[in-house]
Amino acid sequence: MSANIVIIDYGMGNLRSVQKAFEKVGFSATITRDHALIKEASHIVLPGVGAFGDAMKNLNSLGLSNLLHVEVLEHKKLFLGICLGMQLIAEKSYEFGEHQGLGWIEDAKVVRFEESSLKIPHVGWNEMNFHNPSILFKDIPDHSNFYFVHSYYFEAPSTHAIGYCDYGHSFVCAIQKENIFATQFHPEKSQTHGLQIIKNFAQLTKESLC
Amino acid sequence: MLKHRIIPCVLLKDWQLVKSIQFGSFRTIGHPTATVRIYNARNVDELIVLDIDASLNNEPINTEIITDMANECFMPLTIGGGIKTIEDVYTVLGAGADKVSINSEAIKRPSFIKEIATIFGSQCVVCSIDIKKVDGKYRVFTKKEGLLDIDPIELAKEYERQGAGEILLTSIDREGTTLGYDTELLKLFANTLHIPIIINGGMGKPEHGAEALQNGADALAAAFIFHFTQFTPNMIKEELSHHHYPVRLS
Predict the structure, then answer these.
(1) What is the pLDDT of residue A1?
(2) Residue A160, pLDDT above cutoff 70
(3) Is residue B163 within 8 Å of B115, Cβ to Cβ?
(4) B170 CA: distance to closest CA in chain A (Å)
């Protein structure tokens, strides 16, 4: 069965660039907030650029938080969070106050880079160092460069970490927990290796994870 | 480690990408989408396109061509030219750009930078300053109004205060000459600013890139070298890497 990919439209960021990355590697993806379409999907992508608080507010008011809980945690659909979409699956964020996230990764929180010597945001190409092996990294060499844009980072125990990046200190830049995948960097803006990640995700099946 | 970037910076004119020489004559580079495809294949790190029909002739921003380019661009894309309002920024980002480059409007109204940064974040705002040296002094220049009586350093400091994410610093005297970047100008800016500087104008060989990084540039913009010399982006990166500057090699 071919992948039925949806990109969640919740009013945060440029979703079209994620959609065209899927198209580039031979898959179509639908940008939607329609619950019926999301329920039919096999793959759910949550991109996003912007503030954590606004994002959660939008997900909640559109009824998407509950829907995603059901589809991803109960039905175990393949999920890819990108940038803010990765941060949203943490338990909490401290961006402009304290906010509850979707809470899919235990003890994960989103905190600001504190080093005074660092330029914030962390913008540009930086290396990802593999931690645990993941099917998401098929055909990608260790220490490849990806494109990052963020001021807050994902702080979590190493249990589900699959990649780390160094900016002032080492932080988790990619995670996998069963059917849940996420990257802090933007695969859709990271040329060849980024497109490979998009392709790897699109080619996954629930069965391939077992 | 964060990498130094190699960024083609080209102009959009009459539906073609072109390269200017000291802001005067234009040489055609090629069809926009075909050129973007080549840049993608050649491993450049970002792309800056300045729409001079929109900036000079007050034509509406060419969203059709920006969309076409963005569809081929799997790296960050900065679009400039004729951006005067927040609606323009929405238009350009909606067409698929990741950042906007602001020039004339920022000179007139530096608070425009803050407006953009508040809504879209500082990483979204590149402030472009064009500079000409006259009687030994650096002066701000715009294509429309010519030389302005503004100190470029003070202007850049104001841009930084307003929340600019990066400065695109172009030496008109060096542009398209292959004589190397104006490192004297670069040093003045690098010693004053805290935000990243993209130096532009004059790269004719890879060694010029290393010189610029040594003098405080964060990223290297160029066009002539990619189209009218034998040097490729990777050859420049290899030279930089040889000097121990972190770059993205492949």
Answers:
(1) 56
(2) yes
(3) no
(4) 21
